[in-house]
Amino acid sequence: MTGEQSTHSERSVLGGHAPREQRSGATLPFGDERHLLAHQWLVDEAYLLDEQAYTRWLELLTDDIHYLMPVRVTTALGTGFDTAPGAAHFDENKYSLSRRVARFLTEHAWTEDPPSRLRHHITNVRTFATDDDDHLVVDSGVLLFRSRGDVREPSLVSAGREDLLRREAGGWRLARRTILVDESVIRMQNLAIFL
Amino acid sequence: MIDQAGVLGSVRRGMIPAHIYNDEHVFALEKERVFGRAWMFVAHESEIPSAGDYVVRRVLDDSFIVVRDEKGEIHAHFNMCLHRGMQVCRAEMGNASHFRCPYHGWSYRNDGRIVGLPFHQDAYGGEAGFKRKSQRLLRAPRIGSHNGMIFVSLDDEAPSLRDHLGDFVFYLDYYTRQSPSGIEMRGPQRWRVKANWKIGAENFAGDMYHTPQTHTSVVEIGLFREPKAEKRRDGATYWAGNGGGTTYKLPPGGLDERLRYVGYPDEMIARMKGEWSREQCDVIGRDGFMISAASVFPNLSFVHNWPRVEDSDDVVPFISVRQWQPISENETEILSWFAVDAEAPEEFKRLSYKAYLMCFGSTGMFEQDDVENWVSLTNTAAGSMARRLMLNSRMGLLEDGTEVSPALPPERFSGPGIARTGYSEHNQRELLRRWADHMERPLPKAAGVEVGTNGQQAEAGQ
């Protein structure tokens, strides 16, 4: 994702409001405090997502968040794009994410009752500074294992993520997330989960 | 094997042997007799607007390149090199003037004609050994389009697409012809679910009964105000030609008020009125019914809803087109497109897309709960107990066949076909009756096509 002129958010249909900060310079050393805090932030978040503690998760998102998961497509080498133009799985702002969370909190979101067993495996974390001390860009890989019921086969989603973290009063929050899923056809019954 | 006469007879009475939703023998027969014959949606013309634009789409195991050639004509080429059978296009979409097979380098123009055959003279002895002239990638046996929706059929003898759609075209216009420019389609989102393909098609065709229960949560969170049980019951289902669908009964008002009620801006309403017939306008304006979900036999569905997408009372309508592409007896790939009128204001397009993402598709909050049900149903249909259970799909009929709710007279429903208010499974039975009709008719063996010899039926003028 390095070296691009614009973010996926800017090219998406609903990302007009998305923060524009981009990475600057090389990967921060793994001993750098900024990397350590970003890495810990992602790990703590992964536990919230595993537990489906979505109300607390929403509090970790900035009010201007853009949460984007483009549809990946197979294109010939050199085509210049590998996401479906104008189409995404998620293209969310805080309001739409809050509706998704509100739904899980009703007693009638059947797809998660009984709940899935989730494990977000987060790996390959690296952190970049931006031109602004209050923003960090973090890349990570995520492998989500999801198991429902006792007889069904579990399912997996593998994706790369680029996050923009922002320092706000009360701590670091997620201001932008781009999820580049590694399959063009998702092998999961729905995306009633967050990555 | 299956007891074909028993199963089909039972389905025709509205008693469904539960195993048809997860039975390898049933699926083998469907592959041959349903999908080897029916018109299958492959793409919309707006997905390939320019010369050379292509998408690769499947009809079950058969891959087709749906491409616009340099003259603007649309083709569906069987994606298999004439030489050794390699896929000549391995991308899902793109733009190409030619397709070159990576195996031995045979190449084809985007209109399908062969243009390059390495060492034709040295290896084959030229035309005397391999007749290159007039060779082309195999065409889909039949191709047709309606309102920009491109369909193919693998059956040379299939009736025309227009005949297949029949009077359903009246209703298709609500989804695909809201202005002279028609729709543009984006996507599709694609994902695989462990559910039988028929379940989604039946659900979208007529299942108003599930909405208040399955989709309780989306009402509770304020996303959609309509699915309350009483409102759904007052809606009508209709069946016409080879498709049918559901509607919502809207509050009193005329055509303009009702289209505004579901969120259409006045400029779009003006174009709809210019485009739709008197009868099409009357279904909404006079009779008070707004189209919602629909299916066309065998596996193409539509949905039109009008949720709230911001923290306000305004609603925004959206349209989705989806295909239930069978993978096996217990797995379906869903292809779900967002569709919007090409002439709609840009802001409307944005909000309509947002409405779609919140409601349907891989992340949609309606669809999430639907699929959970369908996966569970499919899973349970695999066993031997499911072979005993005959599911009662006779809602709307008394045991002696009397209809619970009579067909609406023309003065209460101005559309073609048969429409009724209230909960029923008339449409699901219509769909499965067509399924039964296909399942009992063996498919004649298609003639073989020989490549490069005089046995080949060369196409004049190519």
Automatic annotation (TrEMBL), chain A:
GO terms for biological process: 3-phenylpropionate catabolic process. One of its GO terms (molecular function) is 3-phenylpropionate dioxygenase activity. Its EC number is 1.14.12.19. It comes from the Bacteria. SUPFAM superfamilies: NTF2-like. Keywords: Dioxygenase, Oxidoreductase. Pfam families: Ring_hydroxyl_B. Residues 1-27 are annotated as: Disordered. Coiled coil: none annotated. InterPro entries: NTF2-like_dom_sf, Rng_hydr_dOase-bsu. PANTHER family: 3-PHENYLPROPIONATE_CINNAMIC ACID DIOXYGENASE SUBUNIT BETA, BLR3401 PROTEIN. Belongs to the bacterial ring-hydroxylating dioxygenase beta subunit family. NCBIfam families: PRK10069.1 (NF007479). This is 3-phenylpropionate/cinnamic acid dioxygenase subunit beta. The lineage of its organism: Bacteria, Bacillati, Actinomycetota, Actinomycetes, Streptosporangiales.
TrEMBL record, chain B:
Coiled coil: none annotated. InterPro entries: ARHD_Rieske_2Fe_2S, RHO_NdoB-like_C, Rieske_2Fe-2S, Rieske_2Fe-2S_sf, Ring_hydroxy_dOase_asu_C_dom, Rng_hydr_dOase-A. Residues 39-152 form the Rieske domain. The keyword Hydrolase does not apply. PROSITE patterns: RIESKE, RING_HYDROXYL_ALPHA. Keywords: 2Fe-2S, Aromatic hydrocarbons catabolism, Dioxygenase, Iron, Iron-sulfur, Metal-binding, NAD, Oxidoreductase. Belongs to the bacterial ring-hydroxylating dioxygenase alpha subunit family. This is Aromatic ring-hydroxylating dioxygenase subunit alpha.
